[in-house]
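Hi everyone, sorry if this is the wrong subforum. Our group has a chain we'd like a structural model of before ordering constructs, and none of us has done structure prediction before. Sequence below.
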Amino acid sequence: MTEASTPMPRGLFADDALPLYERTAARLLDDLRAAAARPGDRLPSERAMVARYAVSRVTLRAALAQLEARGIVRPSSSRGWFVAEPGLFPEAASAPASPAPQVQGFADYAEANGLTTASKVLSATVRPATVVEAEQLRIAPGADLFDLHRLRFLDGLLVVLEHNRLPLSACPALADTDFSTASLYATLRAADPPQLPRVADYSVEARHPTAREMELLEIGATMPMLVATQLTSNQDARPIELTVQVYRGDRYRFRASITNQT
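Answer:
Right subforum, don't worry. Here is the predicted structure as tokens:
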């Protein structure tokens, strides 16, 4: 789900409407500024930061990954996290503490709007990538692909049938994660190295449902489907996710702003 794919309710840009990892990143950056942190300074341990910000380790690592992508902090494999080298942190410190634009996942959207999510995993397997999938994801044909089918709910209402395909090499933890409760994008952000969804090519079409979709989405033959296809790339412009989302037409609306830049 992209930022333009759903209506933007009142208060969407309030601080408490941002995903928790973005709010944590902003608090950590505020603390670094208040402490007059200098390049090379070591951050507290992850355990200490988890306690300070009252978040999970997954959320903290997603926040650190965002700050790393902005050139504010850097990791050391054996020594923890440090303020970035000269030439990076001073520039970041003088900038406003607004989060970098990011592609928004289903769970991110729900959290930002105070909605509860639930998922029913239909299948989660590792299989060889087809030639077509390999071309889209820029991996070798036959490479390990994580293939996930889920039904997604908002506040107990069934909204979408989702099919995600990701190169397992980007995040090996995908194969061992329970996505009936876990967030796909949070898992990617917590990967080592982090996989930060940055750009999504997104298209939407309307069509009639298949018999299987009618059964899973609990609809009749007259209900239209809105089908969204998304190819998401990470901070290195590398494709990391190919997703097809089949929405109930009565519970989804696509909206976008179109601007003439000339």
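For your construct planning: The beta strands are 73-76, 80-83, 117-128, 144-154, 157-167, 199-207, 225-233, 239-248. Confidence is low (pLDDT under 50) at residues 1-13, 87-101.
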